[in-house]
Amino acid sequence: MAELTTLARPYARAAFEYAREASDLQGWSEMLSVMAAVSQADAVKKVMASPTQTAAQKGETFVELCGDAANEKGQNFIRNLAANKRLELLPAIHELFDVFKAQLEKSIDVDVISAYQLPGEVLDKLAKALSTKLNREVSVQGDVDPSLIGGALIRAGDTVIDDSVRGRLAKLAEAMNS
């Protein structure tokens, strides 16, 4: 997975820089989302893996499949990816593009996983506290995982806060085995 991210980063950065200069970050994010979805279809994967088509033919086929969702610059982006045999990177490119966009907009998505469903007011308080701590606008998504036993697991980008009972027990077991 890290290899795909490494390969996708220059393409995502180029798309992001172009979209930022064109003041069309949302448009490019939506366009890349469609492209990523198209690239994940099984029939499309088979066509793109076909050795009988040239890279240019694969690019044109992909452009046709995207239809009106890809503007002229997006179509050129697809052709460039096809020429470099990188169409399979589109999901990673879309993901990285959205990360760059969120960093620019000073926003972050936070996943809060708890043993029980958290009330909305608790999630709102948590969002405010994290917004202050991370100096960003925070969007909180709550999920339930009964295996946590109690407490919560918070993921904000690369930052993970594990305050679950399961996490504490794992730390205690590790300390006892050391």
From TrEMBL:
<keyword id="KW-0139">CF(1)</keyword>
<protein>
    <recommendedName>
        <fullName>ATP synthase subunit delta</fullName>
    </recommendedName>
</protein>
<dbReference type="InterPro" id="IPR020781">
    <property type="entry name" value="ATPase_OSCP/d_CS"/>
</dbReference>
<keyword id="KW-0472">Membrane</keyword>
<keyword id="KW-0375">Hydrogen ion transport</keyword>
<dbReference type="InterPro" id="IPR026015">
    <property type="entry name" value="ATP_synth_OSCP/delta_N_sf"/>
</dbReference>
<keyword id="KW-0813">Transport</keyword>
<dbReference type="GO" id="GO:0005886">
    <property type="term" value="C:plasma membrane"/>
</dbReference>
<comment type="similarity">
    <text>Belongs to the ATPase delta chain family.</text>
</comment>
<keyword id="KW-0066">ATP synthesis</keyword>
<comment type="function">
    <text>F(1)F(0) ATP synthase produces ATP from ADP in the presence of a proton or sodium gradient. F-type ATPases consist of two structural domains, F(1) containing the extramembraneous catalytic core and F(0) containing the membrane proton channel, linked together by a central stalk and a peripheral stalk. During catalysis, ATP synthesis in the catalytic domain of F(1) is coupled via a rotary mechanism of the central stalk subunits to proton translocation.</text>
</comment>
<keyword id="KW-1003">Cell membrane</keyword>
<comment type="function">
    <text>This protein is part of the stalk that links CF(0) to CF(1). It either transmits conformational changes from CF(0) to CF(1) or is implicated in proton conduction.</text>
</comment>
<dbReference type="Pfam" id="PF00213">
    <property type="entry name" value="OSCP"/>
</dbReference>
<dbReference type="GO" id="GO:0045259">
    <property type="term" value="C:proton-transporting ATP synthase complex"/>
</dbReference>
<dbReference type="InterPro" id="IPR000711">
    <property type="entry name" value="ATPase_OSCP/dsu"/>
</dbReference>
<dbReference type="GO" id="GO:0046933">
    <property type="term" value="F:proton-transporting ATP synthase activity, rotational mechanism"/>
</dbReference>
<keyword id="KW-0406">Ion transport</keyword>
